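Follow-up to my earlier ticket, as requested here are the two runs.
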Amino acid sequence: MPKVLFAALGLAGLVVLAACSPGAVPVAVPSPAPEVAAVCEPLVAALPDQVLDADRRKTEPPSPLTTAYGDPPIEITCGVAPPAGMAEAQSQCFEVNGVGWFAKEAGNGVIFTTIGREVYVEVAVPAKYDPEANALTDVADAVHRFDKVITPCT
């Protein structure tokens, strides 16, 4: 009888853990040209298991162009259109580990977009992770490896 009790308690514990685990993160999936998707898919696949010590999460709908980390989620999307204001902001480019970024304040954090590269990668970082730019350190390696520089950050 005790074995059955332990098994039931163990199963109940798993159910509680599953209920507490965050589910998939809803992230809008871009519709880039095939040549952009060909750069983005290996880039997103090469992103680390953690960003700012937050674990990687699934996105909904599932897409090889998106991923997320932590709760609230840090969302990463590859193949996005350049954000409004980026064309005038080339002088506002800043580098993190050799990757140029454009930053735009959002309602609850900052949205960073690569600048001067073949494709645009967007990293939306909630204010909880202040300073938000620290997340870029964790993703810079994959961006640097897969998204070639067109115009260096100045």
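Run two:
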Amino acid sequence: MTNETHSNDAAVRSPRVNFAKAAPKAFKALIGFDAAAREGLDPALVELVQIRSSQLNKCAYCLHMHTTDARKAGESEERLHMVAVWEEAAHFFSAKERAALALTEAVTLVSHGGVPDAVYQRAARHFDEPELARLLALIFMINTWNRIAISTGKVPGTDER
């Protein structure tokens, strides 16, 4: 395959389906699921989880959106730069945030060995059961949004919410 075949350049990419317009019932259901997942979770934690999953999935559209949202919510540039290396920069994040980021990685990369008991138990020590369920739902949701954005060719910096 040529480099052109793998190009992510929006200028050469063919237009793709607008998921929200083409499948409005499915899109509306996802919006509802997303809102339910976030309910009661710390907004800063929500953005950290969405940023980390988007990094792992290489979803530039979602990464741009969630780093922008995090900045607007008051997140520091320093912490945003450290999300990709959170384990090596542990002192930038609380124990609860680190547990959520570890769970985010395990669920996002589930095909690399599942969700280890130790990772799950670490999260369970920091989140009560309903909160842990919503955290898992949030992780499921951002992985879904990443796949939608990548599959439909969303262009980073063109937040279409």
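The only thing I checked on run two: The CA atoms of residues 107 and 115 lie 6 Å apart. Let me know what else you need.
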